Amino acid sequence: MLKSILIVTIAVLNLNSVETAYEEYLDYATVEHGVVSEELATTWATPAMTGHDYLIMQPASEAPVYLRFVENPPVDGYAPMTTHGWNSTELLVQDPDAMAERLADSPFKIIGGPKDLWNAPDAPRAMQAIGPGNEVVYLTRNVDFEINTPIDRMFIMVVAGPSMDDMSAFYRDRLGLEVGEATPFQITGITNAQGLPEETTYPLAVATVSPEFLLELDEYPPSAPPRPIAEGHLPPGIAMVSFEVTDLDALDVDWRAAPQSIDGFPYDGRRVGVTLGGAGEWIELIEAGD
């Protein structure tokens, strides 16, 4: 059903500061400026977003995987890695240690220095930062993915919710993904953000979208709340993830609004619909073209 991930949509207060930071420190380039059309806002079921400015950025490799930043007012009670929904965007990099040096004096606040994710010669090595839009970004070297630029595309999206069973069932049964067994992990960034004991563990599972894209499912403790959302707006932080699908009509999901064709980049007239995942995360589904 799902073919790939196309877009990560991030709600931010100021586009200019975000654009400059991603250009200067992550080598991303802007490929589109625009405003949210009435048709798109209707598809999202977010009438208050009509007319909001956005920009779309692409990695230096020119991989067709985009970050879309949309201006959206901040919401009281939101902080990164503390609520249900999309919580982190993971980008491929060649050298996390070099990235830590590069970001040391930048609009990106480092919240986790480079380290191997487990004890093995070829283990992924990653660092974490909070970007200028209050979004969490992981920068990861993974030998299973070959890249030719220092910083490349998104390859993992991290979603969190109160029930691993609900999240796994949604991606497995509704969207047809293979979901692995959950394993307890210590995740320092979450523990620090939520003020939990250092030894806290979180059930973590991986869902495979395609050979190029994965989803990480994290189960948060009962103390973590749903994400607060202003009426008619996108969620704050990492608001939505867009997947390419073969056929919208074949999906057994509940739409926020009836899917419709959307003009303009990157939809190009294809049908688009938005649904909610097992943790309340917003999922945009874009029908593949001919």
Describe the overall structure:
The chain is α+β, with helices and mostly antiparallel strands. It has a single domain, classed as Roll (2,3-Dihydroxybiphenyl 1,2-Dioxygenase, domain 1). 16% of the residues lie in helices and 39% in strands. It is built from five helices and 17 strands. Strands 5, 6, 7, 8, 9, 10, 11, 12 and 13 form a nine-stranded mixed sheet that branches. An eight-stranded mixed sheet has the order 2-3-4-1-14-17-16-15, sandwiched between helices. A hairpin with a 5-residue loop joins β7 (125-130) and β8 (136-141). The protein is globular.
Q: How would the blueprint of this fold be written?
A:
Elements: E1 2-12, H1 15-26, E2 29-35, H2 38-44, E3 53-58, E4 66-71, E5 85-93, H3 96-103, E6 109-116, E7 125-130, E8 136-141, E9 151-161, H4 164-174, E10 178-179, E11 183-185, H5 188-194, E12 202-210, E13 213-219, E14 237-245, E15 260-261, E16 271-276, E17 282-287
Parallel strand pairs: 1-4, 5-8, 9-13, 14-17
Antiparallel strand pairs: 1-14, 2-3, 3-4, 5-9, 6-7, 7-8, 10-12, 11-12, 12-13, 15-16, 16-17
